[in-house]
Protein 1
Amino acid sequence: MKVEKILDAKGLACPMPIVKTKKAISEIETGQVLEVHTTDKGAKSDLTAWANSTGHELLDYKEENGVFIFQIRKG
């Protein structure tokens, strides 16, 4: 899957990963994919709820060495 933009939100606490994600997703086209890297443990529930409520699609989620990686397709 082609990722259009990668957002490094590591070290940021809630609500900053969501704030940064909103800004980053506004910079890509509908249908493109944003990848978000964060260390905020609450990001899984926060980003899932945010994607669902804003019409975006959470495509993938994984954790690697304490970093949570999300792929979100802009709706």
Note: The first helix runs from residue 16 to 26.
Protein 2
Amino acid sequence: MLDALCEALPDADIYTLIHQPGTQSPAIESRRIFTSFLQHIPGVHTRYRHLLPLMPQAIESLRLQGHYDLVLSSSHCVAKGLRAPEGVPHLSYVHAPMRYMWDLFDDYFGPGRARLPVRAAAHAVRPWLRRWDRTSAARVDRFVANSHHVAGKLQRFWGREATVVHPPVDLERFTRLPLEGGGRGGYFLWLGAFAPYKRLDIALEAFRELGVPLWVVGTGQEAARLTSGAPPPNIRFLGNVSDDALPSLYRDARALIFTPEEDFGITPLEAQATGRPVIAFAKGGALETVNSRTGLFFSEQTPASLSEAVRRFDSWEASFSPREARSQAERFSRQSFQQAMLREVESLLSLSTKSTTRATAV
């Protein structure tokens, strides 16, 4: 998404907590990039999650190195806390509030989710981080949320209204494949990070009971727990797969299994772009990206509810249209996102007496 913003705002400089040169797209790497004091901590690129208590101070310590007409922050944690210079409007695009300190705290730090010292530390810093989250939100002039689901959270947690601009999806590599012949692999597909809130455990338990093929792509912090022991023969763990291999994995699957309550969720749109349906938990961003003609929903985040949806899928599948699924995904194009964000930028700048010359992106 930052890549799309950089393309839409060609003169923008970038301010970020840390940056590992060479890891981003040319559109990003070609910019002037300024980092915080966290950049100088040895091993920061592999240990940054442990530095969460320092991140508010780090973002507030950044000083803008030039004269700007607008600050545009892209925030899922602390970026919206950047202190804009006096008189410079701040537009913040929010992917999510600090979810692990608000509604998903127990998913990350509940019993069995983390080691006891980590859980104790999280409980200790949670009140302070939530206060900072609300206070820093008050400094932003206008919010844009990546989904209506997130906009509702901003209202609940920060007391702030937000317009909605859905994020862009890199559709081109998924729409190159023909729609004909999809689903012939005979397996269902689960794809994502093995994070607690992703609820891969629901899919594993449901498909153990169903006995139908499930292929799992990804890895993460819960890998050891979720992959311990020999999996049943109908479940395959593929680990991480290359970007080149992913479109074919989607296309050959009968359907994508989407178990988390996501703030938005990119994978359902990638699956639909290849012409495949989605079986999704009926809450969060999936309600904005999947409809009754491109997928099925299960109402409870339990193995039993998912199993029931998979059984219904056998009869529903005959009415599914791959072309309609692709059309649904194409609504979330890069160009649509860029045009909508430029309208938000221009709207906020119109309230300022300055002309549009440069912008910052965080």
Note: DSSP finds 16 helices and 13 strands in the chain.
